[in-house]
Amino acid sequence: MNEITQEAKELINLIEKKSKIAAMLAPSFVVDFKYPEIVGMLKRLGFKFVLRGRAHKWSRSFNKKLFRQKKAKNNQSLDKRLKIPAALA
After folding, report:
1. Contact assessment for residue 52 and residue 29, using Cβ atoms and an 8 Å cutoff
2. pLDDT tens, 10-49?
3. Structural domain boundaries of the chain?
């Protein structure tokens, strides 16, 4: 039973690459873990975001935030490619 699953290997790889990854805690996590200590523990492990609650409530806003960040980054790189001064962009 000491075998590491493929999912665990992928997670370890993402953490080692310092990827921005999120941990989502089920509403019942407080049964097994102390809050807010668990949040600090997960962040120290390498998780960028620690979310708690129902998936459908945070996923919509989280996806919107990621979309806005990606759109802003794409616009910045487009401005650089076109050599548009920041004051005009």
Report:
1. yes
2. 999 999 999 988 888 888 888 899 988 999 999 999 999 8
3. 1-53, 55-89
